[in-house]
Amino acid sequence: DSGVTQTPKHLITATGQRVTLRCSPRSGDLSVYWYQQSLDQGLQFLIQYYNGEERAKGNILERFSAQQFPDLHSELNLSSLELGDSALYFCASSVQGGATDTQYFGPGTRLTVL
Amino acid sequence: EDQVTQSPEALRLQEGESSSLNCSYTVSGLRGLFWYRQDPGKGPEFLFTLYSAGEEKEKERLKATLTKKESFLHITAPKPEDSATYLCAVPLGSGGFKTIFGAGTRLFVKA
User: Fold this and answer.
1) Is residue A84 classed as helix, strand or coil in its secondary structure?
2) Across B12-27, average pLDDT
3) Between A and B, how many CB-CB pairs are < 8 A?
4) Is B2 touching A (CB cutoff 8 A)?
5) What is the pLDDT of residues B57-80, one digit of tens each?
6) What distance in Å separates the CA atoms of residue A109 and residue B43, rounded to the nearest whole number?
7) Taking CB atoms and an 8 Å limit, are A99 and B97 in contact across chains?
8) What are the strands, taking DSSP E only, across B1-111?
9) Mutate to test the interface with B, among A103, A110, A112 (most CBs of B within 10 A)
10) pLDDT in tens, A51-103
11) Do B96 and A88 touch (CB under 8 A)?
């Protein structure tokens, strides 16, 4: 158990809908990362937050948005969902969010878009 | 273009048959390289961070090494419980805040 929690574990929804994925980092960690993992793309970096502020952005679609709240939990919002958004979404956390900080991953949310 | 390439894509070993997994990278100004283990349907689990060429780290049957162009994960006398996907990753971008992962090597160890 990494100490990172994600909810829900599974999510099944329809195309065009909007969903919210939630992540709570390990106690004491200030930085949160979001990743998408699909069969054909591998693990893709989406976005990083540090202490409530966006720090780095990867290949995150405009239909996706995220934020980190004052209590340091984070939410990833996915809207206008398409079939291709079906994937595992992982959250990770680290102490300071530095380049070589160890990232601890949560168990993931499996999103299925029908 | 910054890239991380892992080989082989899949590796099948008999229990006790040692081997190596490769992670090659084309990144300017490497800040570090990570190795993770991932079981099916679960989040990646941290194994090692290597910071500079020549560095080596060990954990049980695993040993990670780093050169200026690639990293190896050596598995000595593997057991079936070592079966998993092994991922390597490097930090990129200004400040190194983006992390790029390789596609992984799926390891199968048969008893």
Assistant:
1) helix
2) 96
3) 65
4) no
5) 999 999 999 999 999 999 999 999
6) 10
7) yes
8) 3-7, 10-14, 19-26, 33-38, 45-50, 56-59, 62-66, 70-75, 84-92, 98-101, 105-110
9) A103
10) 999 999 998 999 999 999 999 999 999 999 999 999 999 999 999 988 899 99
11) no
Q: Which residues contact A7 (CB under 8 A, 6 or more apart)?
A: A21, A22, A109
Give residues 71 to 90 of B whose Cβ lies within 8 Å of A: 87, 89
| SS3 state at A31 | strand
- Are A87 and A38 in contact, with CB atoms under 8 Å apart? yes
Residue type, A45: F
Locate B95 and state its tokens: 């400040």
Chain A closest CA to B96's CA: distance in Å?
5
Displacement of CA A26 from its chain's centroid (Å): 14
Best B36, B90, B97, B100 member to test A by mutation, with max A CBs in 10 Å, is B97
Instruction: Give how far Cα A94 sits from Cα of A26, A59, A68, A87, B97, Å.
Output: 8, 20, 14, 23, 11
